[in-house]
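User: Can you recover a sequence for this backbone? Please restate the input before giving your answer.

Assistant: Of course. Working from this structure:
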């Protein structure tokens, strides 16, 4: 059973102080460029095991180097394989980096976003700009923020493969994590951050983990988008519950607390029209700024979070 205890949390002035740091000047500009490149036609929809996936991986590794991230171990690449329903074996790869904390030991924060999408179907490229080039752009922006303001805890950045085929990359990560699973204090997952006509971004996870609620509510008060909490219970039916809808579920299955940032479904979801040209750029810039605020606040409060099961 998941732990449901309250948290004594850093007050709002701490989040305000985070927002005042220089990393928030224009965090979405580079993220937009990341999305444009990752969702271009030459990436061929980034299906696992394809040349387009390899191109996307090379670009993300280049960005790791520009940011100054270091591998966990000797290399960033963590290959794994799986078999599709038709019997085809797929070779896939997670990319895992870290920023060391200023204090050794203790809890670890894991930030995830999947880089795969649906590939080419019936001659059409499914570019996956929102799903999930936008989440990768957000993760890289968060990494840049932590490099500018070093975290107290180790922060792991896992850009995972094969989410669309059943959370394969995230499950490979938790099956063989680069640190003891019990030390992961929280998984923060980004999946679809860029498209919403109501100026809304959701944070799911506060219902199963009430200790997250005061942190997220404090961020919501100053967020540059409308940050709403929800989509983490069956109150409106199981289809409205996002608990098992993205890579954070692989962590949830292991009892690791999680929070998932994403937008509600839109007309381009899993369509060939999910292209960079259909992204509302101002909203995405502000969405990226919001997840930076939230992730820095969550890392600051990590020691006060109760463990999972």
């Amino acid at each position: 059973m998941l732990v449901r205890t309250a948290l004594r949390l850093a007050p709002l002035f701490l989040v305000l102080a985070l927002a005042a740091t220089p990393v928030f000047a224009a965090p979405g500009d580079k993220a937009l460029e990341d999305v444009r490149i990752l969702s271009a036609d030459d990436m061929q929809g980034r299906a696992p095991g394809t040349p387009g996936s390899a191109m996307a991986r090379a670009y993300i590794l280049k960005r790791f180097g520009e940011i100054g991230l270091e591998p966990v171990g000797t290399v960033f690449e963590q290959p794994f394989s799986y078999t599709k329903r038709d019997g085809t074996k797929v070779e896939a790869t997670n990319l895992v980096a870290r920023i060391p904390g200023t204090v050794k030991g203790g809890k670890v924060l894991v930030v995830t976003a999947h880089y795969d999408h649906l590939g080419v179907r019936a001659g059409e490229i499914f570019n996956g700009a929102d799903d999930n080039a936008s989440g990768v752009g957000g993760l890289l922006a968060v990494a840049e923020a932590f490099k500018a303001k070093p975290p107290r805890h180790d922060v792991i950045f896992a850009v995972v493969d094969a989410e669309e085929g059943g959370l394969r990359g995230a499950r490979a990560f938790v099956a063989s994590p680069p640190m003891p699973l019990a030390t992961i204090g929280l998984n923060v997952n980004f999946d679809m951050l860029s498209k919403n006509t109501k100026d809304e971004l959701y944070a799911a996870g506060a219902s199963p983990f009430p200790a997250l609620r005061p942190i997220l509510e404090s961020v919501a008060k100053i967020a540059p988008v409308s940050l709403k909490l929800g989509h983490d219970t069956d109150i409106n039916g199981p289809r409205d519950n996002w608990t098992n809808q993205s890579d954070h579920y692989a962590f949830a299955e292991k009892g690791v607390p999680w929070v998932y940032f994403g937008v509600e479904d839109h007309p381009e979801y899993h369509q060939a029209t999910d292209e960079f040209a259909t992204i509302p750029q101002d909203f995405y810039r502000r969405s990226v700024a919001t997840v930076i605020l939230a992730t820095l606040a969550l890392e600051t409060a990590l020691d006060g979070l109760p463990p999972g099961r």
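That completes the design. The first strand starts at residue 70 and ends at 71.
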